[in-house]
Design goal:
By secondary structure, the chain is an alpha/beta fold. Helices cover 31% and strands 24% of the residues. The longest helix has 24 residues.
Length: 272
C-alpha cells in the first residue's frame, strides 16, 4: 500500500473516534509528557489502536494522541514520539507527522531533551532552534516521492519559522526563562555521545544535541508545515571536563523539573 493511502486509512481511523479539528500539533519529548495532562481532552487515542502506526517503547513516552483544548486553543498532542534507535524505519518514525498534517494542523511545535554543548548553556535552559545539523544515517524522504505530499527536493533555507521563534523568545523574556537561539544536531543513539563526539559537534557549530526531532522536521517541511523546535538542555556536555555520567533517569528528572517553563513558553506562543 502506498504511503498516501496509509495516511488516509489512519486519518479515517482517527475520525471514527473524534471529529475534533486541531490547529496546532505538539510533540512531547523525553521527560516532557506532563503538558498532555494540561489539555482539556476530548479524545485520547493510543498509537497501537491506529493502522500503520509503530508504538513507543521509551521510558516516559506514553504513546498516544491527546486531542483537546489548551485553554481555548485546539491542539493535538503527541504524548511520546518514535525514535530511529528503537528499530523503526524513518518512515515509521515520521508517519504521525504525516497524519497530523492530514488532520489539518497549521503548525507543529516539537520539544525534546538534549545535551548542551554550548559552554554558556546550563541544565534546564531552553534552546529555540534556528537551524540543525543532521547526522542521522537514514532519511525519511528517501525513496519514491509522492507529489501529493510534497516536492522531491524540499528547500531547507528557512526550516524553522521565524515568527514562531520570535514568539517563543518573547514568551521566555516575559516569564524570566533562560532561553537562547541555537543549532541542534541529531545523532543516532541510543548511547550518549563520547567526549570526542561532543567536541566534534561543537566544532561543527552545534549548541545542543539529541537523538530525535530532525526526521519530524524534515517531513513537516516536506509538507510545507511551519515548525518550531524547543530543546531543553538536561545535561551539560561541553567542555569535556564538565561531562558527568548520565542516565535516562537523570535526563527525565531534569526535564520534568524545568517542564513548567516549557509549558509557559508554549502557552505564550499560542496565546500572546
Amino acid at each position: 500500500m502506498e504511503l498516501y493511502d496509509q495516511i488516509q486509512e489512519a486519518v479515517a481511523a482517527v475520525r471514527a473516534r473524534t471529529d475534533f479539528a486541531p490547529r496546532t500539533g505538539i510533540i512531547l519529548g523525553t521527560g516532557l509528557g506532563n503538558l498532555a495532562d494540561e489539555v482539556q481532552a476530548v479524545a485520547e487515542i493510543p498509537y497501537t489502536e491506529l493502522p500503520h502506526f509503530a508504538h513507543s517503547t521509551v521510558q516516559s513516552h506514553r504513546g498516544k494522541f491527546v486531542f483537546g483544548h489548551l485553554e481555548d486553543h485546539p491542539v493535538v498532542v503527541m504524548a511520546g514520539r518514535l525514535h530511529y534507535y528503537e528499530g523503526w524505519t524513518m518512515q515509521q518514525v515520521t508517519f504521525p507527522v504525516r497524519v497530523l498534517k492530514a488532520l489539518g494542523i497549521e503548525r507543529l511545535i516539537i520539544t525534546n531533551a538534549s545535551g548542551g554543548i554550548n559552554p554558556h548553556l546550563r541544565g534546564g535552559d531552553i534552546v529555540v532552534v534556528r537551524d540543525h545539523i543532521n547526522l542521522l544515517p537514514e532519511h525519511p524522504l528517501r525513496g519514491p516521492n509522492d507529489e501529493r505530499l510534497g516536492p522531491r527536493f524540499p528547500d531547507m533555507s528557512q526550516t524553522y519559522d521565524a515568527g514562531l521563534r520570535g514568539k517563543a523568545l518573547a514568551a521566555a523574556k516575559k516569564y524570566g526563562i533562560r532561553a537562547f537561539e541555537g543549532v541542534y544536531s541529531a545523532m543516532q543513539g541510543p548511547n550518549l555521545e563520547t567526549p570526542a563526539e561532543y567536541v566534534m559537534l561543537r566544532n561543527l557549530g552545534s549548541d545542543c544535541t539529541g537523538m530525535s526531532s530532525v526526521p519530524e522536521v524534515l517531513v513537516a517541511r516536506h509538507q510545507n508545515l511551519p515548525v518550531l523546535m524547543l530543546s531543553m538542555v538536561t545535561n551539560v556536555s561541553f567542555p569535556p571536563s564538565a561531562i558527568r555520567e548520565t542516565s535516562v533517569e537523570d535526563v527525565i528528572a531534569v526535564a520534568r523539573g524545568a517542564e513548567p517553563n516549557l509549558s509557559r513558553m508554549i502557552r505564550g506562543i499560542l496565546f500572546d
